[in-house]
């Protein structure tokens, strides 16, 4: 890997604000910035005679833009290169990359927790009393800067990863559709009450636990994501430190029928699967 430099943003990007005077008879497409580097937020257009602003900032393609007020939430992005004519208030300063920084590479930086934390450190105060991050302060942030050739290589790798993720999502959707068709085509037969074929029903036990993955031999509690459509994913579990209130009755055994009865997402309620390849238990009797 080539040598990376530590540079201040002011060395590789420049404040470049194009403030456009408002005309009462014109309409303006407005954008904001989503938090955690998730891109632009496209709002409803406003008419020039419906706003108290005297000017709006024109957001140009490939420009860096952030929210001065919401910077502590990671509200920063790089405008797409096919962006049309859109505007934002003066709360959204814009910057243009110099020759040493590719806009696409900086877009990757805007999705990193490290940059969000740096913006948060520059935004003091609490809640609505937070101070705005000034452009001059923003330009003092230090980042790791690889060579241009290295930036291009990183972008190629990330594009390949994104393409792989998109491809897997498509395959997952196809598999889910096929599974639904198979289920709907089950053979006709005599229906039985579930109570006649299930020996007992045992409710799970909810617990507040960290998202730490359990190590080999450690006790764990299943997450809702362990129960997929027709699949049991034993690795979707959280480390369980406090076993108070847990007994063998709460253990998941091979062949158990597992059903989700509650979920943060309504469409996941009622997921059912058979537990297969269950790890060995580690709970007191």
How would you describe what is shown here?
The protein starts with a strand and ends in an 11-residue tail after the last strand. The strands form eight sheets. Strands 2-12-9-10 form a four-stranded antiparallel beta sheet. The protein has helices at 9-12, 103-109, 113-122, 135-138, 148-184, and strands at residues 5-8, 13-15, 18-21, 27-28, 31-33, 40-42, 46-47, 55-59, 64-66, 76-78, 86-88, 94-97, 142-145, 220-222, 227-228, 231-232, 237-239, 257-259, 272-274. It has 285 residues and is an alpha+beta fold. The chain is built from five helices and 19 strands.
Provide a short characterization of the protein structure.
22% of the residues lie in helices and 21% in strands. The chain is of the alpha+beta class and 285 residues long.
């Amino acid at each position: 890997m080539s040598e990376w430099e530590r540079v201040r943003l002011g060395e590789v990007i420049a404040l470049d604000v194009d403030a456009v005077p408002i005309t009462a008879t014109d309409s303006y497409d407005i954008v904001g910035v989503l938090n955690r580097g998730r891109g632009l937020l496209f709002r409803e257009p406003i008419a020039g005679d419906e706003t108290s602003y005297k000017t709006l900032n024109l957001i140009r393609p490939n420009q860096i833009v952030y929210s001065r007020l919401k910077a502590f939430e990671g509200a920063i992005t790089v405008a797409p290169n096919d962006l049309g004519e859109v505007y934002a208030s003066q709360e959204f300063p814009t910057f243009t990359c110099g020759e040493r920084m590719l806009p696409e590479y900086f877009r990757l930086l805007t999705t990193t927790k490290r940059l969000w934390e740096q913006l948060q450190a520059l935004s003091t105060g609490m809640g609505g009393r937070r101070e705005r991050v000034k452009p001059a302060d923003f330009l003092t942030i230090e980042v790791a800067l690889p060579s241009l050739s290295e930036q291009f290589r990183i972008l190629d790798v990330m594009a390949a990863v994104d393409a792989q993720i998109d491809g897997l999502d498509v395959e997952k959707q196809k598999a889910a559709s096929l599974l639904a068709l198979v289920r709907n085509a089950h053979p006709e037969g005599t229906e039985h009450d579930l109570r006649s074929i299930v020996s007992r029903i045992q409710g799970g036990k909810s617990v507040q636990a960290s998202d730490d993955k359990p190590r080999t031999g450690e006790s764990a509690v299943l997450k809702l994501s362990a129960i997929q459509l027709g699949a049991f994913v034993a690795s979707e579990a959280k480390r369980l430190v406090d076993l108070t209130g847990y007994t063998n009755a709460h253990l998941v055994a091979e062949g158990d029928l597992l059903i989700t009865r509650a979920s943060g997402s309504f469409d996941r309620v009622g997921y059912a699967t058979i537990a297969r390849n269950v790890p060995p238990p580690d709970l007191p009797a």
